[in-house]
Write a structure and sequence with these properties.
The chain is built from 15 helices and 14 strands. The chain has helices at residues 58-69, 104-110, 121-134, 154-157, 164-169, 178-192, 244-254, 258-267, 270-275, 281-289, 293-317, 327-332, 334-341, 353-358, 382-398, and strands spanning 2-8, 13-19, 24-32, 40-45, 49-52, 85-90, 100-101, 140-144, 200-206, 210-216, 219-223, 322-326, 364-365, 374-377. Strand 2 and strand 3 form a beta hairpin. Helix 6 (178-192) crosses helix 15 (382-398), helix 10 packs across helix 11 (293-317) and helix 11 crosses helix 13. The chain starts with a strand and ends with a helix.
């Protein structure tokens, strides 16, 4: 079965085409700057290329992706009829608790929750509709990034606002990066040879966006991101946890609109806001080595807040058996892993400092043999998890 995986942002479409029988990626790439000047289609495999186009909307972007896949010179399929199914990454699934076949009824039900992710969901709805128009009859599967966290107990997902805002408006913690967490938990169990249904695990998905999950006996019991992806540790350009009074004070003093406040807390803050130079942790680490004091402060804040959540989740879980680092920063930045776990010996964590410095993006244990807590790096593969979900659900529907 050939499965096309789509991951749509507000102005982008990332794609991967899998041949599930051969267990390989046939093609991958993305469309960037949709609706903006300088829009382009970039391919990674089977060959690298960059093609400038006028791409006013997601429907046009999707058509360019499909044209690329069937191109006579460098396409990987002869006809769109070779695509057996589509897997759509949905950032916010509201109450949906698992990946599901996208029927017209499910699509209509999901659209009721578009307001919960006003940046991502409208674009994803347009992409889903474009697939229905361009590939009628090809089954689509919605993979919800929030679904993994639907096992949170009410005392963990509710905010201490008047209860009516939860009842009437769905205001609660939803969490994100769920597809990554599912893959990493599954893969860690395979690599480290443990049963996730009898384990206490803290997974740290650390990229430009960051979230941690506390997983007990195979179920997520708490996570750092909230109703939107801004809660939790300090991130590349997001504030993370913030006293709402501080934001209201800044809004009042500087006459900021709600839209400007959203931009401030999501795109101008975090590592970028504190360092004043970058949101890229690689560049930040280099700047700290050169003695940049603001960069040093930003890195200390960054790892300190990660450490606080690791400690908090160890308390929530009643101890911890495994700490797993994943995503771009978690997989490739030894200083971040070291700073996060420094001083955690009281929990039974003994990081192998020498090995930690050598690990970049490979599956491996980075704790010492004496450590009571196993610390490991497990690279994530969200698209593969999505492809597996799509294969399973479409096969079940055909059975």
């Amino acid at each position: 079965m050939k499965i096309l995986i789509l991951n749509c942002g507000s102005s982008s479409i990332k794609y991967k085409l899998y041949d599930m029988a051969a267990q390989q990626v046939m093609a991958a790439g993305g469309v960037e700057k949709i609706g903006l000047a300088g829009a382009f289609l970039k391919t990674k495999t089977p060959q690298a290329g960059k093609y400038m186009h006028d791409i006013p909307d997601h429907a046009t972007g999707l058509r360019f992706v499909l044209d690329e896949l069937t191109d006579a010179d460098h396409g990987v399929i002869k006809s769109l009829s070779e695509i057996d199914a589509i897997g759509d990454r949905i950032t916010h699934g509201g109450p949906f608790s698992e990946s599901t076949l996208l029927t017209p009824e499910i699509f209509a039900e999901w659209k009721k929750y578009i307001g919960l992710a006003p940046v991502h969901s409208p674009a994803q709805a347009k992409s889903i509709q474009a697939v229905m128009d361009c590939l009628p009859g090809v089954p689509q599967v919605a993979i919800f990034d929030t679904a993994f966290h639907q096992t949170l107990p009410d005392y963990a997902y509710l905010y201490a606002l008047p209860y009516r805002y939860y009842e009437e408006d769905g205001v609660r913690r939803y969490g994100f990066h769920g597809t990554s967490f599912r893959y990493v938990m599954q893969r860690a169990a395979e690599v480290l040879h443990f049963d996730p249904h009898h384990s206490r695990i803290i997974i740290a998905h650390i990229g430009n966006g960051i979230s941690l999950a506390a997983v007990k006996d195979g179920k997520c019991v708490d996570t750092t991101m909230g109703m939107m992806p801004n809660e939790g540790p300090m991130m590349g350009t997001r504030t993370g946890d913030l006293d709402p009074s501080a934001l209201l004070y800044v809004m009042d003093k500087h006459h900021l609109s709600p839209a400007q406040a959203i931009d401030l807390t999501n795109k101008q803050s975090g590592v970028l806001g504190i360092s004043g130079i970058t949101n890229d942790i690689r560049e930040l680490v280099e700047a700290t080595k050169q003695g940049n004091e603001r960069a040093q402060l930003a890195l200390k804040m960054y790892t300190y807040r990660l450490k606080k959540y690791v400690g908090a989740y160890a308390a929530v879980l009643g101890g911890v058996d495994y700490i797993i680092f994943t995503a771009g920063v978690g997989e490739n930045q030894p200083p971040v892993r070291r700073g996060t776990l420094e001083g955690m010996e009281y929990l039974g964590v003994q990081l192998d400092l020498e090995k930690n410095e050598q690990v970049y993006g490979q599956e491996t244990i980075i704790s010492t043999p004496q450590s009571r807590v196993t610390v490991a790096v497990i690279p994530t593969d969200e698209e593969l998890m999505m492809a597996q979900d799509t294969l399973r659900i479409v096969s079940q529907a055909k059975a």
